[in-house]
Backbone:
């Protein structure tokens, strides 16, 4: 999949930070960004995109001025090598919140969720593929949605060259729904289609990610500064993402029935014995597998959650509670308190408890 359609690289933005020196101009935040990749980034003065907005917000928080170098991101990881890893930039916007994405790249805490979405007219309520049985669904050639739709006999897939073409066909009534990249669906719906359509993120393995800022491995001081700024800016970043039409990430099945209480009121330590490990596996694979691998089977020992008891022994549940509540920003993991319900957290704990290794 190209960088353009991966949470990892929908747009590039990189930062070089130099300490200010008396009598010299203010330190600069150099930003490399894709000039034509809305709603993530653009070189147009009218609307710059979320990643450019985040770059501006972070720069202001760090007391820096911004300079831009525009760089197309359609070359995938090659764009990272040509910028960040060639020492042209010191940070790269929009990488997946996954330390294993590239061996020489580390990532910050996530700052936005991105993924695939279904867009439909109001009379067609759809949040999953099963809801599209018997309908014509627009997909993009070579995309994950095209492969998923092709596996279902009861859905008629209609293939287009890009997301915009599929959305235009939806507006003309040539398809009943489109299964396309969520940020583009939300942006086009708001800017071009008058907000008439519903845009719903689709849960599932390989369908949703969290985007972060990448830095070169070992640049811990810069990553810490970016983590601090992103944490403080989280409410404003969420507001900007909503303004661009980014659809909300899907809720786990266990979280749909009631609003999530704070973990301190109902964390893993207070889980009932009836928590469902199978449900927990689904919740885990939806929200956690992008960093910890599907079914918690990460080949990276530090991310292999099947070894929690071997590492933490009798304190495993307390470590789980604390990590879920507060996250581990220094390692790129966000807090999940208030995102997952108490039932969802308990289900995840039940699943992890069921797969613990003993040696």
Residues:
């Amino acid at each position: 999949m190209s960088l353009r359609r991966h949470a990892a690289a929908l747009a590039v933005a990189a930062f070089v930070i130099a300490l200010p020196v008396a009598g010299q101009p203010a330190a600069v935040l150099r930003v490399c960004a894709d000039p034509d990749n809305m709603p993530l980034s653009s070189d147009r003065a009218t609307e710059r995109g979320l990643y450019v907005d985040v770059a501006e917000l972070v720069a202001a928080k760090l007391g820096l001025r911004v300079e831009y170098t525009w760089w197309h991101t359609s070359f995938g990881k090659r764009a990272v090598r040509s910028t960040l890893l060639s020492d042209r930039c010191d940070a790269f916007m929009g990488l997946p919140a996954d330390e294993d994405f590239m061996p020489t790249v580390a990532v910050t805490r996530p700052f936005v969720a991105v993924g695939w979405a279904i867009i439909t007219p109001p009379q067609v309520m759809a949040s999953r593929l099963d809801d599209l049985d018997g309908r014509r669904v627009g997909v993009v050639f070579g995309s994950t949605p095209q492969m998923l739709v092709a596996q279902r006999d009861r859905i008629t897939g209609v293939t287009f060259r890009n997301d915009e073409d599929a959305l235009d066909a939806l507006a003309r009534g040539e398809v009943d729904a489109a299964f396309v990249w969520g940020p583009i669906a939300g942006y086009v719906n708001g800017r071009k289609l008058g907000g008439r359509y519903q845009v719903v993120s689709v849960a599932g393995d390989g369908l949703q990610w969290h985007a972060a800022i990448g830095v070169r491995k070992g640049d811990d001081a810069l990553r810490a500064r970016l983590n601090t700024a992103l944490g403080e800016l989280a409410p404003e970043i969420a507001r900007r993402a909503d303004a661009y039409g980014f659809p909300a990430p899907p809720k786990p099945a266990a979280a749909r029935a009631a609003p999530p209480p704070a973990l301190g009121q109902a964390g893993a330590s207070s889980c009932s014995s009836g928590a469902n490990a199978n449900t927990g596996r689904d919740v885990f694979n939806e929200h956690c597998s992008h960093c910890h691998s599907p079914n918690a089977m990460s080949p990276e020992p530090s991310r292999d959650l099947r070894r929690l008891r071997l590492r933490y022994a009798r304190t495993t549940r307390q470590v789980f509670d604390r990590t879920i509540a507060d996250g581990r920003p220094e390692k790129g993991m966000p807090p999940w308190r208030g995102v997952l319900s108490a039932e969802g957290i308990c289900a995840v704990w039940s699943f992890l408890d069921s797969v613990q290794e003993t040696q």
Q: What stands out?
A: The first strand starts at residue 28 and ends at 33.
